[in-house]
Amino acid sequence: MTQKFHTAKKLALVLAGLCMALLCSELYFRFVRPIEFMRIRTIDANARDGWYGMIHRHSKTPGLPYELVPLLDQDSIGTRVKTNSLGMRDDEPLPRETPGLVRVLAVGDSVTFGYRVAQEDNFCGVLERQFAAEPLGQRRIEVLNSGVSGYSSKDEAAAFAGKWLGLQPDMVLLCYCLNDPWFEPDQPLQRYFVPPRWWQHSATLRFLVQRSQGRKVRELGGGNFFRSLHAPSEPSWKSVEAAFARIAGLASERKIPVVMAIFPMFSPDPWSEYPFRAQHTQVAEAGRRNGFLVLDLLARFEREDPLGLLIEKGDMHPNATGHRIAGLEIQRFLTEHWAQLSAAK
């Protein structure tokens, strides 16, 4: 009996010590060395700024955490944002019975949305105007912009399946960026709309998850986050493969051709030092396996001064010049392959 009592006492002391250590750790990472990684944020309805709250809302579409607010007309981070009744940063869709109408649905994230770029300068608008200036016979090409900042490939597939198929597009323009595999809600915008996981309530656990992710970046991406996202063994890349398959399946059932445009990661560094060529090849091959016609925009952008394509030096999003180049290159590619795309219908 005495032996059992001493054993229980030791176990209680160990557990008490462990609890004290965890408490001290929690206090340290909350007040001495605060951990911002995956910190839970709540929306203050009276203090939301134009980016996080006022142009986005919770989505009722299955698998989609948030979407653009319909019928907006306001400034957001220095740019005027107008949305139609469907929550697209675009005009209202033309009537489906419009003579010669060819509806191109652009699917993507902040680049497609046109982050910090005027609506008329977005590559979707450039593409539509270019087709109006150089029409393909009697066709009227309409390009609808369904891009939403922060969307992953997983989100884009959910939006395509749950929201945009009803528009009966004649073609899908799937715009891929190298952060599209990342579906974890660690960006500020996503953290406003995605319910937190249980471990996010603990600063200590968030620190440990952050360390674990850092180790993966070193081991799988050679220290580069975007390369690690494309590691074939990772859930991030597997989510891209699943999203491609979902989009391909839905489009194939309706005989809708899919064109995938791969955007490079913009930076001020020379193109000769661009570190993601293997990932471009990986994405292109995955797209072709799913029946997509693939345009890699890297080859076109390499002809330009990288500094002339950036909104600012610390922002990876393309400016109006970058959007114009993308729109013209996509228009050239679609025109070149129009017969092939039309035959798929």
Task: Describe the fold and architecture.
By secondary structure, the protein is α/β, with parallel strands linked by helices. Helices cover 44% and strands 12% of the residues. The strands form three sheets. A five-stranded parallel beta sheet has the order 6-5-7-8-9, with helices on both faces. Strands 1-2 form a two-stranded antiparallel ribbon. A two-stranded antiparallel ribbon has the order 3-4. Helix 4 packs across helix 12 and helix 5 (153-164) packs parallel to helix 9. The relative contact order is 0.12.
Which features characterize this protein?
9 strands; 5-stranded parallel sheet; alpha/beta; two-stranded antiparallel sheet; single chain; 44% helix; 345 residues
What's the alpha carbon Rg, rounded to whole Å? 23 Å
Main β-sheet: number of strands, strand sense, barrel status? Answer: 5 strands, parallel
Summing up helix and strand content along with how strands pair, one would put the structural category as alpha/beta
Question: Helix-strand pattern, N to C?
Answer: HHEEEEEHHEHEHHHHEHEHHH
Instruction: Report the portion of residues in β strands.
Output: 5-15%
> In total, how many beta strands?
9
Low-confidence stretches at least 5 residues in length (pLDDT < 50)?
Answer: 45-50
Oligomer: single chain
Helix content: 40-55%
Q: What gross morphology would you assign?
A: elongated
First-last Cα distance: 82 Å
Q: Which sequence of strands runs across the widest sheet?
A: 6-5-7-8-9
Number of helices: 13
Mean pLDDT: 91
